[in-house]
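Long-time lurker. I teach an intro course on protein structure, and each term I like to show students one example going from raw sequence to a predicted 3D structure in token notation. This year I'd like something fresh instead of my usual example. Would anyone be willing to generate the tokens for the chain below so I can use it in lecture? Attribution to the forum is fine with me.
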Amino acid sequence: MSVTRAMKDSGAAWIGEIPQGWEIKRMKDCFISNSRAQPNKTVLSLSYGKVIVKDMEEKKGVTPESFDSYQGVHPGDVVLRLTDLQNDQKSLRVGRATTKGIITSAYLCVSSRSLNDRYSAYLLHDVGDIQKLFYGLGGGVRQSMKFADLAELLFSLPTPAEQRAIADYLDRQTALIDQRLTTLAEKKAVLAELRKATIHEAVTKGLNKNAPMKDSGVAWIGEIPQGWEIKRMKDCFISNSRAQPNKTVLSLSYGKVIVKDMEEKKGVTPESFDSYQGVHPGDVVLRLTDLQNDQKSLRVGRATTKGIITSAYLCVSSRSLNDRYSAYLLHDVGDIQKLFYGLGGGVRQSMKFADLAELLFSLPTPAEQRAIADYLDRQTALIDTQLATLDEQAQVLKVLRKAIIHEAVTGKIDLSGYVPQTSEAQAA
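-- Reply from a regular --
Happy to contribute to a lecture. Here you go:
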């Protein structure tokens, strides 16, 4: 493949120069908006850039009483989610169908007039998900769009033979990158489980593997070392209602209490922070709201700076525990063992300190609490560094994937002579 070829101005800013011989056409000349009859009752959904068969057993999203209004989808169709454009500018909005089924009519389903359907899917993915052009069409971001709003959008088109060559090349390259991303995700999952196991083992069994043990009498804890005590939440912690030490607004984000970026318009910002509670270093913040609907988020974080946080959260400080140990202990209870959700005989929408008051913990001596906290600080820091490295590697691969697709569908890479390897050709 050569990267140098005769180029010309496309006339479209997002495309730039294109190869001589390529055409510029409008969306309405390349695609038609489908309103197909339902081929069957297989319900599909657009998830992370893929059109998949919806798991009807998993209660995710809104399920209608009837699917009569759903539109038919056939293999090769491209589904575009052009709703909620104002509020969500990060999600993948384009996916290619590989099976027959039905999908909500809130989405736009298109098929190409004469393009290679795999090429057309990469083309629309580049426009919608990589270049993010949907958001600026019509002079600004709108809540939703229809086919007519995309009709004049310009594309660069190679010959049918080169369309297929580009699709073959991108199928291979994206598959290789996706395989590496899957491997990184699997490594992350293993490290995340190791992190959880390390914390749970330390706060319930201690650091001495040979210590004589006794029954704790608490199912989630099991056996504990001789000399450890079992105490209730209300004997270990107090619920704070501190005065505001300053106006530094804090938030609980991914298990960390951080200074909130007030320039970034995320979440609901109140008109006044007068109702916010004071937080001091060493306090532990627990988010005990929305328990019914969200059982995956991290709900426990330790403050390392003074500030204020919403009074919707519970802020506690330890009566006599090492504050780092107490944060690991509550993280284990709330985020690792997920015990908040089952307290009181079932999942409730929210809880207060009184609902946790009788929760039992195993406690070592103050000296051992500090030793455990020191050990966990070191071990979690090592694991977090490895996790960060994996995230960086994944980010590089994702950027590479986007660049390869954009360069290919706009002709910046000469793929006119690309021939799939034997295994690829057989698979096609």
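Some talking points for your students: Residues 191 and 383 are 7 Å apart (CA to CA). The mean pLDDT is 90.
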